[in-house]
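User: quick one - fold this with ME8 bound?
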Amino acid sequence: MANKGNFYITTPIYYPSDKLHIGHSYCTVATDAMARYKRLRGYDVLFLTGTDEHGQKIEDKAKDAGVSPQEFVDRIVEGERGVLDLWKLMNISNDRFIRTTDDYHVAAIQKIFKAMYDKGDIYKGKYSGKYCKPCESFWTESQLVDGKCPDCGREVQDAEEEAYFFKLSKYADRILDLLENTDFLEPKSRVNEMVNNFIKPGLEDLCVSRTSFTWGVPVDFDPGHVVYVWIDALFNYMTALGFQNDKYNDLEKFWPCDVHFVGKEIVRFHSIIWPAMLMSLELPLPKKVYGHGWLNFNGEKMSKSRGNVVDPYILAERFGVDALRFFLLRTFPFGSDGNFTNELLISTINTDLANDLGNLVSRTTAMCQKYFGGTLAEGGESAELDGELKALATEVITNYEKQMDAYQFHNALSEAFRLISRANKYIDETAPWVLAKSEETKPRLLSVMKNLCEAIRISAVLVSPVMPESAEKIFNLLGVPAEGRAWDSLTYCACADCTWNTQTGAPIFPRIDMEKELAALEELSKPQEPAKPAIETEALAEETVDFETFCKSDFRAVKVKECQNVKKSDKLLQFTLDDGTGVDRQILSGIAKFYKPEELIGKTLVAIVNLPPRKMMGRESCGMLISAVHKEDGVEKLNLLMVSDDIPAGAKLC
Ligand code: ME8
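Assistant: Sure. Structure tokens for the protein plus ME8:
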């Protein structure tokens, strides 16, 4: 197939602050379907996705989790059921994955920031305003809605800091022209939102550095400042091609980007701030930004903070990845919001996939088997009705292409399903079971089966960008060779020369029992009781010790003056203790696995002090510290016995 040219498409890069939910999958699935469609059409596609890993939100979350920000994001991106796992599960065919913590990106952002500074488009000033922490956005008083963040509706805080600013105001006229007089931003309704809410009230310069936290790209010429996370994030689209770095070399081939798919709440960043920065650097602008709607749940945006997230793993495991992908793109117009419900998901699968497409494939392959042993040889007898099916297929292909090129997935799929429904009706109209009764009507039966196979083949090519695995199953059942799966094969033909070798198989989309499934999903969505850890303590001693002997043990409160690791030992800590005698006591204890030396200094512990001294790693230990030991889920735990610091060193315990 002739190369149609290059096509560069991106998703937003995701914040790995929480696990992703089905709302996040929406945009990535749409981008994937578009990338697959363009590849099918013969384009050389670059599909980029990734993660946006800097900013205060991540720094705070990492702190709460007691890990470094890098460890925190690594876990969510690369860990089990993390971002990478989710895209694998959803069969996402991205060609590249960028993490904004990648070294090449960080270095490139520093150069980009410096270039805008050198140009005079970034300058130093003082910022005082309102800050929305979850959105990492600064707002002026006039931009707030009811005193709250205009993006997410949450409380904002007063904030003031020395900061760098980008001269956004300088580009206001050019941005207005771009939005109003070109097709840069779609759908058109988003243009009005941008112009009326942000540009007409006056574009103010944008605060583009922070000093209140450190988890970001450092401004290399002014330590203490980190680059505003949105500058860092937006330029991912270019650094991932090799802009200001040597890691990649695809700028010439793929920039300007053909389309950025983004959620509606981040259209402002992509259609105002992003082109303004590119104008500042005199770089070509992306050809299009498409702002899609939200997947809502009970009328509200699905989000982790609202506690209404739907787990894509559960849905994909229960219904299959293709069914889920299909549901997302078939049900909701891409530019509008959609309300996700389990009922809607199940009824879409049952109606479109099990009843219409699945049934058409099962019935057709079963009849090919029954009447022709799976081999449709040359020959046949066509009728007028076949022409009607062919005409519809031809119309559907043209409409499908138009709709896909306009990013209208739901309409494109609805075109494919017009053909599928028509083919199902064709079965009822031709009644193959009647034709099979007589040898005389066998040639007609042969043509009917060929028409059905052809209609299914064409439908499978059309749904393949959205349901790649199912399309492949269908092609295999029909014995379609590679060239029959390609876009160029989309010319309907069921003539006497055509032959088919079909097979039968298990239903591709089994019907789902709505009631049972809803009950099962309800059960799964109940908060699970966290499993209680299995605690093991040592059995009580059977042997007794007489009272007099016990009383000889001398337990004392001791204060830790110094504590350090013992060289070449990963077990021992060496304590210098005040035992109230005025002479320091040294005790070695095998607890390095459980405590860091610095956390014990100053603590009041309990030691038995009249044990004979013994040598450990060549050092003398005079006594033993008392601790409580047990196992949790098979893991050894140890807690030193600590008493109130009011208890003086040397106090006897009895
Ligand atoms: O915005 N329905 O990251 P993010 C539809 N890091 N789309 C949804 C959704 C829902 N319920 N919830 C989230 C960011 N999304 C930035 C992007 S790009 C240079 C930086 C979409 O993880 C959301 O609209 O918060 C956005 O497009 C994407 O998921 C990533 O959101």
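One thing worth noting: The CA atoms of residues 209 and 325 lie 39 Å apart.
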